[in-house]
Please model this.
Amino acid sequence: MSKIAVIAVVGPTASGKTKLGVEIAKAVSGEVVSCDSMQIYKTMDVATAKPTPEEMEGVPHHLVDILPPETPFSLAEYVRLASETIADIHARGHVPVLVGGTGLYADTLLQGIQLCDQGEDPVYREKLAAVAAAEGGEKLMEMLMECDPAYAAGVHANNIPRLIRALEVYHTTGVPLSEHIRRSRPDSAPYDTFWLGLRFHDRSKLYDRINLRVDQMMENGLLDEAKAAYETRMSTAAQAIGCKELFPYFDGEKTLEECVATLKQSTRRYAKRQLTWFSRNQKIHWLEPDCQTWSELVGNAFEMLMNSHLFSDILYPGEIRL
Model:
């Protein structure tokens, strides 16, 4: 039985993944499957950089805006939902196009990593939660970097549950969670995946894009979203980049300008960790937006797809409109 062919578009935040994913989906009769741990939630549209209807250009997008913001959501649940979605898209004769920057989700789903139960220590977990409440996610990130830097590379400092879980696994088993994941990789992946990645030759240009995006998010109502999360204590949704960084402003501890600067710095650091994570994947075909025009980049992406054995029969140059 042949495997389902999937196109994956990955990379750091603000690199253009959504736009490229839509271009590809239009050309291959595809549908987008989001690979973002925060876009799964309703509301928080600005903070999680959800694609607008205009940006979707009529392409169906799945696993976006489906859960209440206070609902916990695990990696295992994502893999289950995404697997079902990919199977459904394929059954209807369309191509699944996975788009996102949550590297752990993408790898676990597309490489078929088996999720196994690890040790639990509720008392230690509560201690870590207290540390997070007192000193923030950055403290947990420091702790995780000491014992499991490989896993830390794929986690944002605001994602308290994932940080706590990784520390708990190391505490109870003595083995980093990243090593548990490595050992659980199967000999054969469940999908035939063609990986496309976006990265910048000059990383400062990516950071400029991130700074600009944050400014645009502020103009588009990020402060109101963060205020709603702050007032209702939506712990899960508030993990999104853009919320917790603004909380000190609501507490009267920092100016808005200081909080926005912190947000930009936090997002840049997250992008760096995303790049570190994806750089380990030797199957990714990289594209650099700062070394070519957008039309050239899209054309190069299509050429890569046409040269692959997976999609050469459904993608033709005459169908490509740049």
About this structure: Residues 148 and 179 are 9 Å apart (CA to CA).
